[in-house]
Amino acid sequence: MIQKLFWSVRFAFAEIRNEWLFGIGVALAVSSVVTPAALLWGTKSGMIDAMRERLLREPAIRELVGQENHALPIAWFDEKTADPRVAFVIPSVRRISLYGSVAKSGSVEDFVSDVAYLPTAPGDPIGGGVGLPADYEGGGVPCMISARVAESLEAKEGDAIAITVSRIENDAIVQVSLEAKVDRVLAPGDSGAMAIYLPLPVIERIEDYKDGSAVPLFGWGKGVRDSMRTYDSFRIRFDSARSPEDEAAVIADSAVRGKLPLRATSEKGEYEAVANRDGIAHGEVLELVRQFRGLDPKVLLLAEAPFEVESSAGAAGSDGWLQGDPQEWLSLEDFEGIEAASPAQAKDDPPARVWKIATAGGTSSLRLRLPAPVASGSRVIVAPEFLGVVGAAKRRIIDYNTDSGEFRSPRLAYPGFRLYARELEDVRPLRLECEKEGISVRTNEDRIDSVVYLDAALGKFLAFVVVAGGLGGLGALFTSLYLSIERSRRQFAVLQILGIPPLYVFLSSFLQAMIMVLAGVLASFAFFQMGSALLAAVLASEGGPNDGFCELETGQWAVLTATSLGSALLATVLARSRLRFKDPAVVARSE
Amino acid sequence: MPETLLEIREAILRRGSVSEGFAVRVGEFAVRSSELLAILGPSGCGKSTLLDTLGLVLRPDSAEVFEIDLGGGRLFTGLHRRDESRLLQIRRQHMGYILQSGGLVPSLSIRENILTACHFSGKRFDRERFSVLVERLALGPLLSRRPRDLSGGQRQRAAIARALVHGPSLVLADEPTAAVDHKLADEVCHTLRECAKELGAAVVMVTHNRELAASFADRILDLGDPLNRTVTRV
């Protein structure tokens, strides 16, 4: 068996050697088909892959940014994070809170305004997937700045920059600043915007400040207007009944100045303000009371069970309204806050009292730090505003922010987001999904589409060239091999007369074809290398990409080689009928 | 008493189709071991058809007896065997073939041409027989050459070596001297007979050369003889 196989191999080589010009002709014919196909395929692969890779390297291409403020629950972000098509998603605060100015630390003159403050986190594709850690408190606030900001400030990595945050208090702009260290200057491809990227908690605290809250961590004080809207309603009582004219003036003034319209109650000289939706903040009450300075108005708040409450400036009346002077009420800063459980009263903290209350988030405890020790069972004087907190806690979840010492509604949703699809092809379905959810997003699909279109168009063109060239090549190869066999008819007839099994004669013919085709593919490889080098040189001279424009992977060469060998096998099989003769003696004698 | 290697009785041999082909009737025909049988006759009398039938290249249309016993027992009996690979096997193991101009494979060297028969015979290569044949046929200096580099006589000598190197029982020679001159024809026939006798092989040789047949053949079958009843046209 081995001996016979060796004979086939030797016979194949002997035939090639005997007709080497024919062999070169077949190899060149194969090469003339394979080389252009390889060059086209290589160009398609190299160019499209390079463009795809470049697009993939440019995170903005895979970016989906929420266009308007929405109320996206935390669960929405969890769902997106778990989606395999999503590479990264990070929530964002209100868009209006995301702009400010930055300056190089120590430089008053060199600042850049209208800089977008954008949240980032580890894994953020911007900046190479590193992002910034949320745990920044030990080493100061890190930040990444876009190339444009870096250029404007002439800032580099390691520099300290001052981030300015402003809010309006009493019709005046109040500014605070925060020093951040430049962790990374982003490449232009990462972010073309005038932007500074900060850890999400920093961004949230900036928003807190803009909302009027204090941010003790950064040394930012509380605003004039309390952000916590705790009252559903309150009443103002004047000592004496107002004349109809005065009453009309009171109501009109409150509507215009305080933006909290009062209306007359059934009690003479008593007027009520009712919150429209969000509740009324303590500061708004104070502001309204200030309007009636000199008329010595008393403010009444509805005392809610089950607390036994006494105001520092009054007591609850029979109608359940608590009367007092809001200027004298204790500040909410006297409260320690709402705790998740009911802690045991600390021995070293006798003034603290804890109440269990049912809230929207379940049973919570309210801990109140009292200004003076009280005996057990005593009635406690609390600030009426505390009643507002309790009331609000029954309707919705209230957190106590230990940093600012404020009662706040916890963040249950974010208004915006920045999301990155894992693949270019994932952008469109994710966008459609968002739109289905009523979320309008901005994407760069047009740039993706152009690459996909080019890929498809070149793919069709390549397919046409390969099919047309392949058919021509196969035809040429078949004809050549067929004629080669035809010319050797007598020889094959003699071999048949000698009793040589046709299988080994066929094998030899196939080996012969395979060797010639392989030589053709090798020649194509050489021509391809020359062609791709020439293309690269031409493109480089034109200022285009000089590397990877026309490339074929090993696997692609394997496909080309296998296709060529398959064609050789097919041609040999088709010509096989010419290898066997019904009457070989006639053929052997015919020439 | 020489044994019968091949026997045919009352057979119709045909080449080509029934309507357009050519057919002969074989009355009684046998080939015996170690003999050189020359088949003579004019063109178209059925010499080659008979030879190709003996070589199992053609199969008879019908036959009362068609038996081959080429050493090692009866190898083929009957007319209904359609196993082409079996016929090929008998040919390459037990027969040698010499064609008019040698029938050598042009791309292979003389050595490779000769050894081709050995590779496929299924028998162990007999180096001594190869050496004897090369020496007897004076092929030593020609072994590495290719057929196109040889003269007609040298090619026929190489063809004889190829036909005998695997030790066949029957050698079929189809006008082996047609392409050589008279002197060389003598030499070829002489060499063929001597080598065949030394190796114990029977030779069936088709030739037009009556003189040559008379000189070298043990037996002559003249198909052109009006008294011949062995092979006749139908």
Reported for the largest beta sheet of chain A, the result is: 6 strands, mixed, barrel
The biggest beta sheet of chain B reads: 5 strands, antiparallel
Spell out the CATH superfamily of chain B. P-loop containing nucleotide triphosphate hydrolases
Based on DSSP secondary structure assignment, what is the total number of beta strands of chain A? Answer: 27
In the sheet with the most strands of chain A, the strands line up as 4-5-9-6-8-7
Molecular structure report:
The complex is a heterodimer of chains A (591) and B (234). With 591 residues, chain A is of the alpha+beta class. Chain A is built from 14 helices and 27 strands. The longest helix of chain A has 43 residues, at 445-487. Chain A is elongated, with a radius of gyration of 41 Å. Chain B has one domain (4-233): Rossmann fold. Chain B starts with a strand and ends with a strand. Chain B is α/β, with parallel strands linked by helices and 234 residues long. In chain B, the strands form two sheets. Chain B has a five-stranded antiparallel beta sheet with strand order 5-4-1-2-10, with helices on one face. Chain B is 34% helix and 25% strand. In chain B, helix 3 packs parallel to helix 5 and helix 5 packs parallel to helix 6. Chains A and B meet through helix 1, helix 11 and helix 14 of A and helix 2 and helix 3 of B.
Topology (SSEs and partners):
The complex is a heterodimer of chains A (591) and B (234).
Chain A: H1 2-18, H2 20-57, E1 63-66, E2 72-73, H3 74-82, E3 86-92, E4 99-104, E5 111-120, E6 141-145, H4 147-153, E7 160-169, E8 172-185, E9 195-199, H5 200-210, E10 229-231, E11 233-237, H6 244-258, E12 262-264, E13 270-274, E14 280-281, H7 282-291, E15 298-302, E16 309-311, E17 314-315, E18 321-324, E19 335-339, E20 352-359, E21 362-369, E22 380-381, H8 384-395, E23 399-401, E24 406-408, E25 413-414, E26 416-421, H9 424-436, E27 441-442, H10 445-487, H11 489-497, H12 502-541, H13 554-575, H14 584-590
Parallel strand pairs in A: 5-9, 6-8, 16-22
Antiparallel strand pairs in A: 1-26, 1-27, 2-25, 3-26, 4-5, 4-7, 6-9, 7-8, 10-14, 11-13, 11-15, 12-13, 15-18, 16-17, 19-21, 20-21, 23-24
Chain B: E1 4-15, E2 22-32, E3 36-40, H1 47-54, E4 62-68, E5 76-77, H2 84-94, E6 95-98, H3 110-121, H4 127-136, H5 152-164, E7 170-174, H6 182-199, E8 202-206, H7 210-216, E9 219-222, E10 231-233
Parallel strand pairs in B: 3-8, 3-9, 6-7, 7-8
Antiparallel strand pairs in B: 1-2, 1-4, 2-10, 4-5
